[in-house]
Amino acid sequence: MDESALQTRLTRIERLLTLAVVVLVAQVLRDVAGVLGTWVTGVLTATLALLAVAAVVYTRRRSRDTAGG
Q1: Do the beta carbons of residue 40 and residue 29 sit within 8 Å?
Q2: 13, 30, 40, 69 — which has fewest CB within 10 A?
Q3: Is the pTM of this model over 0.85?
């Protein structure tokens, strides 16, 4: 296999793993909502979502900066 084919496979695997993590996190949040209550879980979920978006933005900017120069 050439490098581009391997990179495509790696990207697909990363996306599948991300999807699996999202599904598992959703299940955990549902279980936490049963214990802590809906409002507390909503606040925690919103906080985690903001942190996730910040991590994605940071990672993409860093990869763009290293690729560009």
Answers
A1: no
A2: 69
A3: no
